[in-house]
């Protein structure tokens, strides 16, 4: 909050996030409410007691309402009524971040989760078996042990597109599987590259109780009720150090061992403001404690409490509150990039479930079609091209073929059954009655 005093008009000009929220809420009232600002104490008040005194002025009747970064606390509601909070509530920690170097030996397995690896292997084998079944020539050429068959299946799953496939069904399976491999390998490469090259920022502290166990020093804003909160959490007062907001970065950089602190405990709206200016070296951890947030304090029973609360609700439900935060706190993009550690998550099975389903369905349908064709259609009808090499007899082309005619073959001797019997007996007796052959002189 910024306060300026105009010497000529003797008037106070105030600006800031709380002021803008209040003025925007007053504009949305159904009637005009005149007001003027008065300064109480320093800006900001120097202690939590002065904040309590600030609110108590309403109870004393000195002010009609108080505006500022006033946290709604139980003890303050005893003597004032508060509007609904207009900021995010809670207590969190500001901690430094460090670069995490991944030294995992098996980092090449991390881009894919276990279920995705298993699903890929199952579909990998199923596709190879499908191609093997759809290609009879490859199937009939298989020889050797089971391990050799498995090797062929693995080869077809990876290099099936390089083989000379004859069945149109196997070609369809390979085309779909090649697309699955393209998407899967591209995603794997991108995820692995991200894990190896993207800078990963991790908070040095993730739990406030670790600070207690390790005996670390913890900081808090000077004059804030956070001091009492840390005491309620059983922190040793000798391990607590108070700082002004402009001293937070230096204290965190020194560290607990060098006169600084390991973490700063503060309210979330202030942490957002700090990270907006220091969004590369620190992050927010928490919230670790729940609070009600900032609100405006009115006298007990004031009718303006309900009206202003409704106006605040109207502001926070729309885009106006976001624009006010960007104006006074900073761009949320810087907070997210600098205040949250960058991590590269592994790809899971659900990301590729639809792709795997399509590939498996195509393979199954092709197998069913092949089975139906094999059962109900003859091999010649399946592959008529295989019979193209068989010669077809043409009677006109075979004029030289001689057809046997009994009438034309009168010169052929006809064996007499009686002579045939005598010849047979002579053979058995070892005699030959046939006339001797004579040699003709040439």
TrEMBL record:
It is a multi-pass membrane protein. Residues 384-442 are annotated as: Disordered. It is found in: Membrane. It comes from the Eukaryota. Keywords: Glycoprotein, Ion channel, Ion transport, Ligand-gated ion channel, Membrane, Receptor, Transmembrane, Transmembrane helix, Transport. Residues 406-423 have a biased composition (Acidic residues). Residues 2-331 form the Ionotropic glutamate receptor C-terminal domain. Residues 428-442 have a biased composition (Polar residues). GO terms for molecular function: ligand-gated monoatomic ion channel activity. The chain crosses the membrane at residues 116-134, 146-162, 168-190, 352-377. GO terms for cellular component: membrane. This is Glutamate receptor. The lineage of its organism: Eukaryota, Viridiplantae, Streptophyta, Embryophyta, Tracheophyta.
């Amino acid at each position: 909050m910024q306060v300026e005093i105009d010497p000529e008009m003797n008037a106070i000009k105030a600006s800031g996030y709380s002021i803008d929220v209040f003025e925007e809420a007053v504009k949305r009232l159904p009637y005009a409410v005149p007001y003027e600002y008065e300064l109480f104490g320093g800006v900001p008040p120097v202690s939590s007691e002065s904040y309590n005194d600030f609110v108590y002025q309403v109870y004393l009747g000195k002010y009609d309402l108080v505006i500022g970064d006033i946290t709604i606390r139980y003890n303050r509601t005893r003597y004032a009524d508060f509007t609904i909070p207009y900021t995010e509530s809670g207590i969190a920690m500001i901690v430094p971040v460090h670069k995490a170097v991944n030294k995992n030996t098996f980092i090449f397995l991390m881009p894919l989760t276990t279920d995705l690896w298993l699903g890929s292997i199952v579909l990998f084998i199923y596709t190879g078996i499908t191609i093997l079944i759809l290609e009879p020539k490859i199937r009939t050429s298989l020889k050797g042990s089971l391990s050799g068959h498995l090797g062929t299946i693995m080869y077809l799953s990876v290099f099936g597109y390089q083989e000379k496939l004859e069945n149109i069904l196997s070609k369809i399976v390979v085309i779909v599987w090649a697309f699955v491999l393209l998407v899967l390998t591209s995603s794997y490469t991108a995820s692995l590259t991200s894990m190896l090259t993207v800078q990963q920022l991790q908070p040095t502290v993730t739990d406030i109780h670790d600070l207690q166990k390790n005996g670390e020093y913890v900081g808090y804003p000077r004059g804030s009720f956070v001091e009492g909160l840390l005491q309620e959490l059983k922190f040793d007062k000798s391990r607590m150090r108070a700082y002004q907001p402009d001293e937070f970065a230096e204290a965190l950089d020194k560290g607990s061992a060098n006169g600084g602190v390991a973490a700063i405990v503060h309210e979330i709206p202030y942490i957002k403001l700090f990270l907006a200016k220091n969004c590369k070296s620190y992050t927010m951890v928490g919230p670790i404690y729940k609070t009600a947030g900032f609100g405006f304090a009115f006298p007990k029973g004031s009718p303006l409490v309900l009206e202003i609360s409704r106006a605040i609700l109207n502001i926070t439900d729309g885009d106006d509150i976001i624009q006010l935060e960007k104006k006074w706190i900073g761009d949320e993009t810087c907070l997210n990039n600098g205040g949250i550690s960058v991590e590269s998550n592994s790809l899971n099975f659900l990301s590729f479930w639809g792709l795997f389903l399509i590939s498996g369905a195509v393979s199954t349908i092709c197998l069913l079609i092949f089975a139906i064709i094999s059962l109900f259609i003859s091999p010649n009808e399946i592959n008529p091209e295989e019979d193209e090499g068989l010669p077809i007899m043409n009677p006109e082309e075979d004029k030289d073929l001689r057809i046997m005619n009994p009438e034309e073959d009168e010169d052929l001797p006809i064996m007499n059954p009686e002579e045939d019997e005598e010849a047979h007996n002579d053979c058995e007796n070892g005699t030959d009655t046939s006339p001797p052959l004579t040699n003709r002189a040439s």
